[in-house]
Amino acid sequence: MAEIFGVGGPLPTIPDDLSLAQFILDAHIPTRPIRKGGIPWLIEDRTGRKIGLEELRARTYGLANAFASTYKIQEEDVVCLFSPNHVVIWATHRLGAIVTAANPSYTASELAHQLKLTESRLLLVHPDCLDQALEASRMANISSDRIILFDASPDAPYPCINQLVQEGLSRAASFTETPQPGYFWLFRPSAPITHDIQAVAIPHYAPIANCMQVAVNYKINEYLPSGVVPMFRVGDVALAAVPFFHGYALVSWYGNCRPPSLHFSFLSQLVAFLFSGVTLVVAPKFDFEDMLRSIEKYRVNILPIVPPHVVLLCKHPAVKKYDLSSITFCLVAAAPLSAELTSQLAKVIPGSRIGQGYGLTETCVGVAIVPLSQKIGTLGSGGQLIPGIVARVLKPDGSLAKTGEPGELMVKSPSNASHYFKDDKSTKETFIDGYVSTFPSWEEILKVRGFQVAPAELEDHLLDHPDVADACVVGLPDEYSGELPLAYVSLHPHAIERISHNHDETAKIKNSILRHVSDHKVYYKHLAGVEFVDVIPKSAAGKLLRRVLREKAKESNARREIQVSSRSKL
Fold first, then answer.
1. Can you give the three-state secondary structure of 3-60, one letter per residue?
2. What one-character DSSP code corresponds to residue 278?
3. How far apart are the C-alpha atoms of 366 and 356, rounded to whole Å?
4. Which of 110, 312, 412, 487 could cysteine-pair with 316, CB 3.0–4.6 Å?
């Protein structure tokens, strides 16, 4: 098999002298559809308030001006966003500064690590996350006068976004937009080798290119032959059901993901949907029944979701109370969706197109997506390669794989990222001769509710527990979450002795280990259970034989021998 090329094209000229904010808010792109008067850009889900282009431009300018004048933010400075959904990224990009988005579920220590890694100079925080942010800022030596709230809080003496917007609008311009836009950073929660947060450097050119690839793929603003129904149209409404810190949300809106599995970035939503004249309904946080209510209230046409949402749509009793008939396109990404769930979802929203997408942060992000020609995407497929993509499948010896042979997927795209931040080794392993390697060191990553969980990170943390001599974490299949982390632990002799004298100690030690993780890690990294073994299997070279315990977990789970502390509930 030679190189594989994405279907469609050619691509139009991709501007290389624009920031993402300029591309969306300012630039005239010949292939861009005209958004007719009265069609809002955004709708605030909670209030129904509609936001148009001029308000977006004004607020973006005001906030950028305040960042520059009050906080002296300039080119290549880093601004960290620690909040659920909120569109403030463009103001930072106006200054040529860099955005790093943090998961609002992070513990203080996890956030502090990201702040220190990125050398963030400003921290924007939702009031609900303030306690963690204050503790993290102290740990990262960030002064409290560098903290800004997204919304005003009477109990917190910190400036808020609206206040800064007004201040910025009232002042003379204190910045000039950079003619050469730089980067923003998307983060994966942990890298299996380093057990650390890893930052991917994304040039502004990349999401702009990916937006235009998607537009060409779906023939946006082109004449379609009779009988061909467009995937989405000017005036359609999309629901931002996935948080903006997640990569699936940052090209579709902006973000932070990368599995070697299904991922079509919502960075491609904020960009691709707004580029195409679609209105986004923005919710402050995810609540399933609120999502159903919003679909009915705003007659949502486009629903970008992740597999756990699909499980809820198929099985939650509240679904029958709401009218979902407005949905015309349901895009599922961030983790694989089974053929069975796809078929069930088609019965829940029978008039809708349903398909999956595949991508990764390093390709920012879309590589493949359900094609325009299919109403229901090929079951189990991540879609077809989009225009501008060139792919290879390499065997371990470096030769090209033939049809049907396994190998490593290599992707070349105009939307590829450039490097990892302060990680030359991973950069050389991943970015090779214009291609991105999609599998370096990621074979063992777990996908929990669409989030990445590195077993090595949890194993290192478990070894800090006084009763744990050795540990191995594997994925336990779960219908809602996809996988749940299950820990196999061998105990220190002193713990084994305590159990020999008192069998009640078994439950006490297991609960202590579970708390050891839940007290220090974000919720989706919490262990589903702990199983004791005499010894953790390893190779002669000392490498964990994770596959042995993975198979053991599979068999034990089938026989219902594993004591699971908590399974996901609908």
1. CEECCCCCCCCCCCCCCHHHHHHCCCCCCCCCCCCCCCCEEECCCCCEECHHHHHHHH
2. P
3. 11
4. 312
pTM: 0.80
Q: Rounded distance, CA 68 to CA 498, Å?
A: 61
376, exposed or middle or buried, with CB in 10 Å at 0-12, 13-18, 19+? middle
- Listing DSSP states for 329-351 in one string gives EEEE-SS---HHHHHHHHHHSTT
pLDDT in tens, 106-127: 889 989 988 998 899 999 998 9
Structure-derived torsion over alpha carbons of residues 273, 278, 284, 286, reported in degrees to the nearest 10: -70
At 14, list the tokens.
């991709």
Helix (H, G, I), strand (E, B) or coil at 295: helix
Amino acid at 45: D
**52-184 with 446-558: one CATH topology?**
no
**pLDDT tens digits, residue range 411-427?**
999 999 999 888 898 89
- Amino acid identity at 362: E
SS (H, E, C) 536-554: CCECCCCCECHHHHHHHHH
Span 339-364, pLDDT tens digits: 888 999 999 999 999 999 988 889 98
**Domain range 446-558, CATH class:** alpha beta
**Is 313 within 8 Å of 321 (Cβ atoms)?**
no
pLDDT computed for residue 263 by the predictor: 31
Q: Give Cα 282 distance to the centre of its chain.
A: 16
Residue 547 has pLDDT above 50, yes or no: yes
Q: Find how far residue 354's CA is from the centre of its chain.
A: 20
CATH number of 52-184: 3.40.50.980
Indicate the domain borders of the chain.
52-184, 446-558
Q: In one letter, which amino acid is 384? A: Q
CA distances from 263 to 199, 277, 311, 365, 382 (A): 17, 23, 18, 7, 9
